Amino acid sequence: MRRVKLPFATQNEGKIKESKRVLSQYGIEVVPIALDISEPDAGSIEHVTREKLRQVRGMGVDRAMVDDAGIFFAAYHQFPGVLSKRVFQGIGYRGVMKLLAGETRQAWFEGGIGLLWDGEEVFFSARTRGRLLESLPAGVTPDPGFPFDALFVPEGEHRTLAEMLPAERERFSYRVVALKELAEWLRRREGSGNS
Ligand SMILES: O=c1[nH]c(=O)c2ncn([C@@H]3O[C@H](COP(=O)(O)OP(=O)(O)OP(=O)(O)O)[C@@H](O)[C@H]3O)c2[nH]1
Q: What PANTHER family does the entry give (predicted)?
């Protein structure tokens, strides 16, 4: 596939780093763009992702990617989900620990990626299951954009996502799964006839 530029409408540094790393392997150059998008505070990840895409389209952009993601605690119903950012900003690790005291630690991440490509809209999604530790492991400095990575141990692992190198983390990242699907879609779309 010839190199393509993919504008990414996000303010989250963690999402930018992860998507650049994955998509550069496919010849896709992620270019962050700052757009003023207001996020609905209810509904599914797919609903919020599609709503972000709708707003981007409304700004006259014809090629862009958006990402919406969140963590879901098995102890609660669809929570915090699309509210993950706001809930964490409000209650921090101390509040999360209180919410989960005496409850199942099972949790999953769910992420949606929306692609707007020459007027066409495509949605990709994936999940990663795991559990949340009862406290932050010693020596881990949480990434402000990905605070739950510091507590989240994916199924089949004993380390948190934050303790893994980026390349190791790829095996467990729902975002990477969705990004790879997006890359394959773009390869099919842009691939033929190009070097
Ligand atoms: O530990 C984490 N590892 C991840 O991989 C991850 N992905 C999402 N999240 C959390 O869920 C919120 C979603 O927020 P979100 O999708 O609304 O994004 P955001 O507002 O940060 O950026 P934007 O893309 O909307 O500009 C984020 O703030 C984080 O708290 C993650 N936490």
A: INOSINE TRIPHOSPHATE PYROPHOSPHATASE (PTHR11067:SF9), INOSINE TRIPHOSPHATE PYROPHOSPHATASE/HAM1 PROTEIN (PTHR11067)
